[in-house]
Amino acid sequence: MPMDPSLNRIPETVRRVHLIAVGGTAMGALACLLNELGCEVRGSDRTIYPPMSDFLAARGIRVLEGFRPENLEPAPDLVVIGNAVTAANPEALECARRGIPYCSLPQAVNRFAARGKRALVVVGTHGKTTTSALAAWILHTAGRDPSFLIGGILADFGSNYRLGRGGEIVLEGDEYDTAFFDKGPKFLHYDPVRLIWTSLEFDHADIYRDLPAIERAFGRLLERLSPACRLFAWDDEPAIDRLLGATRAAVRRYGTQPGSEWRLEVLAPEEGFRCFAAWKGNVRYGRFRTRLIGRHNLLNALAALALAESLGVGPAEAGRALESFRGVKRRQEVRGEKRGVLVLDDFAHHPTAVRETIAAVAAAYPERRIIAVFEPRSNTSMRNVFQEVYPAAFAAADRVLVRDIAVPEKVPAAERFNAERLADALRAQGKEAFRFADTDGILEHLVRFARPGDLVLIMSNGGFDNLHERLLAAL
Fold first, then answer.
1. Residue 217 above 90 pLDDT?
2. How many CB atoms lie within 10 A of CB 284?
3. pLDDT tens, 227-285?
């Protein structure tokens, strides 16, 4: 039974809410947010893994494993349907059969979190989560008490959402489609007064055919922006340059180009800190320190500084925030060290993110051998669209371990990423590279061959069968 478009609405009074695919980072945050607002909240998912499983359990959110029609009993006032859900999902079908009002995640965010607040939105292929987290932390430490909903758990809050009393809300704007009943990008649902645009590359090969298709999606966002919106756009991406003419927003460029309003100057590091100067026009705005590693994170910090300055936060306040910021889980996160082997976790899956992450880690830990462990799990990385690009992304690693895609049936055989081909290409470049059929094989290899002084960088946008904790326990 198809969904009734007239029921794609949020009732005036909502007490009981059910979330289909609650295990997603943003959906889990929404569940907790609704719980804090006094709703009776439950959710379901096929599988759920840390850190989100622990996050929901700690906040008393009831999670039902598996999708079944009976999960909608007793009937909720509202069903929130995640974008990973298909029209054939048993709970979506039951929702349609029973005529229960339903909505998408951004619709729920607008109604329950963003209503009456000024939206500060971060978009782009890379860096959205860290940049959003930095902006939220700067505003928080400056006493602005912002709300936020971000795609990663901030170490400083132990959460990826917050209901603040202040007038602003920081939102990570996703270009992925909204839901099976709304194929437009999620970010089209928001009306930002400030927008940071970090990057633009081809991604999400399951829903976008090519880069021009993604450019059209961002173009739609730019066309919707109000003239009152201030847009901070990265200055080193030709696709961004091409699209900026479509917006009425007040554009401010940031990065390293001479003509940009906000410019980054990398300074010599200090013990435990990366240092940089931010220039606004021809005036040195300030000198800053951060524990984040990598040039890409200095650019993320620069964008967050520019946004905060536009809202009246000065360099001294912002500097204290940057210096104290403890990062985002699964972004170059140190998971532990055993027998002299340091284990880091990162969300990287796109080749640009893989390249920048490995390069940042190698520069931050020059004395360690870097063992890069990669699981192609996203809808794009499971495809061969970047097959020929990935070898260069691992240039800064000393040894590379690549897992076969875990669910090959999700991708037509002719379109699948080939782990063995990647390992062969890396070996042809003189790199130590190995392909594994499963995670158990990777674990066994690491336990046998990792030595004191090594750094194991585990990269996946999924749980990777809890490899991080299993490795530390085995060591």
1. yes
2. 13
3. 999 999 999 999 999 999 989 999 999 999 999 999 999 999 998 899 999 999 999 99
Asked if omega into 74 is within 30° of 0 (cis), the reply is yes
Are the C-beta atoms of residues 453 and 369 closer than 8 Å to each other? yes
Are 121 and 110 a contacting pair, CB within 8 Å? no
Q: What is the DSSP letter of 319?
A: H
- Burial of residue 206 (CB within 10 Å: 0-12, 13-18, 19+) is middle
Are 86 and 142 found together in one domain?
Answer: no
Structural domain range at position 470 = 333-474
Predicted structure pTM score = 0.91
Phi, psi of 344 (to 5 degrees): -115, 150
CA angle, 406 then 448 then 400, to 5°: 50
Same domain? 340 vs 420? yes
| Structural domains in the chain (count) | 3
Report the alpha-carbon distance of residue 471 to residue 467 in Å, rounded.
6
Last residue of a domain, one of 261, 290, 324: 324
294-306 tens-digit pLDDT: 999 999 999 999 9
Same domain for 394 and 301?
Answer: no
